[in-house]
Amino acid sequence: MNKPVILCVDDEVMILDCLKRQLKTEFRNTYVYELAENADEAMILIEELEKNKSEILVIISDWLMPGIKGDEFLIGVHQKFPDIIKILLTGQADEKAIRRANTQANMYCHLCKPWSATELIETIKSGLKTISKS
After folding, report:
1. CATH of the domain at 11
2. 91: which of 29, 32, 36, 113 fits an S-S bond (Cβ 3.0–4.6 Å)?
3. Looking at the predicted structure, is the pLDDT value of residue 1 above 90?
4. 37: Cβ–Cβ under 8 A, 6 or more apart, which residues?
5. Which residues contact 59 (CB under 8 A, 6 or more apart)?
6. Range of 25's domain?
């Protein structure tokens, strides 16, 4: 059986590397950590993971990326995969985009950059508890 997946989406490779390092430090080999540099790449990855019967539990997405903004991406994900925990991690999103992600993507949480590793991990853990209760 495939390990569940946490997907990180950001156009900055340094951010993706940092997120993966923080996640692996906390969760070790419990999950597979996938990285995408934009929303289009992430959607292709999501479809591949779905074909392979891999369960995506959490998506952590930046807002300001080339092409599709993070709120639009999370709304698109939510329409196909409503049970995925969606976290917007950004320093640039406006209030309107955050409200849209909350209402149309059922966003679990919005975290600001620079983020605290502790806050990120606790947010993920609390989000995962909501899945296990369903």
Report:
1. 3.40.50.2300
2. 113
3. no
4. 9, 10, 11, 13, 16
5. 6, 7, 8, 9, 42, 74, 77, 84, 85, 86, 87
6. 5-133
